[in-house]
Write the structure tokens for this entry.
Amino acid sequence: MNNISRIVVCDGNEAAAWGVKLSRPDVVAVYPITPQSSLVEYLSKFIADGELDAELMNVEGEHSVLSALQGACLAGARTYTATSGPGLAFMFEPYVRTPGLRLPMVASLVNRDMLSPQCVWGGQQDVMTVRDAGWIHMFCESAQEVLDTVIMAYRIAEHPEVMLPVNVNHDGNYLSYGVSRVEIPSQPVVDAFLGDKNVNWHAALDPDRPMAVDPLTGGADAEGAARFVAYRQSLCRGMQNALEVITDVHAAWRCASGRAFAPLVEEYRLEDAEIALVTIGSMSGAAKDAVDAARAAGIAAGVIRIKTFRPFPVEAVARAAGKVRALGVVDRAVSYGWNCGPVCQEVQGALYRTGRAIPVLSFIGGLAGADLTGAHFTRAIEATRQALATPPEALAPAPVWLNARDEGVLR
Amino acid sequence: MYEIRIHGRGGQGAVLASAILAQAFVDEGKFAVAIPSFGFERRGAPVSACLRMDAREIRALTNIYCPDCVICVDPTLPRMVDIFAGIKPGGALIQASGKRAAAIDHPAELATLGLCDAMGIALAIFGRPITNSIMLGAFARTTGLVSLAALIGALEAAEFRDAGLEQNRRALERGYAETEVLALVPGFVSREFVS
């Protein structure tokens, strides 16, 4: 069986739309927002041209988008939506309900920086704001990975041991609008990979079998409290189960498609590395190029790329971090409360498992559409290398802001 | 790696041109990545797009600061935008202009100049100042890095249909045929593509 139907040159938004089309959702509900808009336009075209047999619901806002999809998903439909930044904010109430309802939706987050100041460009502040809402979060480096991960996301979300919604994140601007060569998998390959649709076996709405969904739970009495705890424990179990399921699904996709992506954490040139940059999303390619250049100059550097951010792959990150003596974590978002990047905060948590307090530097860049270039990563490598010779207590506690005015014209 | 920066004005199709050129490169077995710059988009405002081409997979998703080649699809843009910013020594400029070569300002390190009266051709074909397809033809003629046939194939893969496709095909062909190529450094016609 030929596993590629054709090769196209398309941007990340169109790649996501191809992944959705091949996964055959039953219901797609959308509201357009920059930089996601072209994604839903591609999907609308697929549906209008009869290439995707799905119900398209153009509703009046993102709150309605997710509410409509909850009904569809409860009735057993495979569902999809996509949003960005402020659209995600407007979606928040049904967004936090979805994991608790154990609805296996797939939604793309075309990452956009958050307001205010007003901004319409890429950044990961939107997703980092909802990192503990109970959704699975995966981050893509390339348009090909966007397409492939959307397909894999359905198999992960609908796995009986997971039953959680999945956000496939791809960076606004550089990845959403950047075009590159993309292999389109053939439909029979995707059909065989996803298997028979069995989306909501645990609570499918059925007129012949009426049931209450999402009843009032909890309260001060012991039974109510215990029932609420049982739901929370179950959600945490689903999250932890997802680590193994995500790994298995990536292995199965490698067999089906011939393309391999690291499921949780990608280790790049780490085996003999002294230091590593930790990256997430579309910045990673430029970081790898900078590491190659550093290696050519005799600096033993590597990259640890976070593919799966929720559930956080604590063991995999600790294992990777255990190979080096200092880390520079590059974030495209801000943890206001910790005065560092959110990924940096999480990586420091995982480092606790290694029992080694190695130097960790936080770099924040690429906010609101700013370019994160090879020169930025070269500078991060150099600063991280210098941290090797600095006692941990002497390291500056503040992040390095890569695009700050006082950083001059460095690009 | 060969890096191209396309400059134009909103509405002239600079971004679409970068996608069509990327498609043509891929159709000829190369790898290409095109990234539009973004800002306050409006018709007539300066826009640009970045395109990388290589014989192997390209990982960096970043803008281009030191291009091998600049394609400027608007004749008046160089007055307000530094289109040569960071251009590599030995680089190429493909400029839409009705002027003679001697009247084109350019940095000393430029090795190749391709000149095409794209605005005149655009007004004749489209009746509007849309110069992107014409300048892709001019790029192919100046650098030899992509074939006219691949560019026509890429036009067909884009959203053009019927009369629009035919017009753009003619635009490409006229851009290719009516471009004057000057070697500013003797014996150096185009920067060789090095994988």
User: Anything to note?
Assistant: The CA atoms of residues 139 and 384 of chain A lie 24 Å apart. The radius of gyration of chain A is 21 Å. The mean pLDDT of chain A is 95. The interface with chain B takes residues 7-9, 11, 121, 141-142, 171, 173-175, 177-181, 282-286, 288-289, 369, 371-374, 411 of chain A (CB under 8 Å).
